[in-house]
Amino acid sequence: MTTADTHRTIHTVFRIESPKIIARVARMLGDVGLAEEFAQDALVAALEHWPESGVPENPGAWLTATAKRRALDELRRRKLLDRKHAELGHALETDASVPDVEAALDDDIGDDLLRLVFVSCHPVLSTEARVALTLRLLGGLTTDEIARAFLVPEPTIAQRIVRAKRTLADKQVPFEVPRASELPERLASVLEVVYLVFNEGYSATSGDDWMRPELCQDALRLARILATLVPSEPEVHGLVALLEIQASRAAARVGPTGEPVLLLAQNRARWDRLLIGRGLRALERARSLGPPGPYVLQAAIAACHAVARTADDTDWARIAALYETLGRVSPSPVVELNRAVAVSMALGPAAGLEVLDALKGEPSLSAYHLLPSVRGDLLVKLGRHAEARAEFERAASLTKNVREQALLLERADDCARASDTKEAPTELG
Final residue of a domain: which of 107, 142, 161? Predict the structure, then answer.
């Protein structure tokens, strides 16, 4: 393996493992800012050692152990090690091997990743800061990826994250799951974070891969844990339902060479029926607990696709109606964009384009690649290939995902060929 290959492997492993490393170290130190710093130290150590020594058999454990040793050094520096011995166990000091450290830190109190979510979503932070920080710490997303998820400038996200970590340290926010009485005020932000983490895994904003399944799995796992913590909250079960159903399509969303496969072209035999069944049951439970909120409505939309045996069987009129309700409950330009797609499928591309064109001046969508992408698709259906080509090219210029960019440029080329064919003179005789 070349040095370049090793470096790519290191960054891939770190991307997957960093949330767990940060959560474990934050539990030791009670400081998420320092925990992220020590996780980065472990990354630097791997970049220094692995090209010569080779990638360890368990690279995640190696990174975690390295970060924990940095944390132990910090505890010694603070002269707090004796107190931490009582909390973490004598094995943490006398033996730094991974099994003993894991045994000392892993107990029945709960899930460290969940603690990390709730700390990042603490009420001392603004809603925007809570979501940005948790995406950074839990999802391992870069500031650029978070900025694209929020449709705001990257420097804004960077400032939010720095200020959020400083606030948590200054306020000495404990690293713990909140008490039952505190759950409601912090739940909405947690649900939003889990949702955005899943979405980043489902359709990666950048990189060479269309999907990042590990993020989908982490988000789904956290959503299920939340459902056990707050079993009477319909929106929690709505989120679980939505993620279960969306995750059921994972195997069908990627082609043999990693290329994206869009919804209507997917082989539905490859959809995971077990996940769909779980999602439908979670949706029914959510509906039984109270009026539908945004996640319940989105889960209902996903269920319309899940129960359709073929793409032609999809109840697009119901989906359009659900998006209209969702737009009233939780107004958003992105919701309206999705409604335009549903309207086009139910009533024709001209009707969908009318809804879509009302969004052309929306500032938050000015750099959102799906707006020109959807518009290009509707223009193709209307036979306006030259206009569609320009839309697909613009969409390709806005996305940073290599796979998605290739798909959009391919569609632009198809439009160019269709336009040339249409404009070519007919050969007589």
Answer: 107
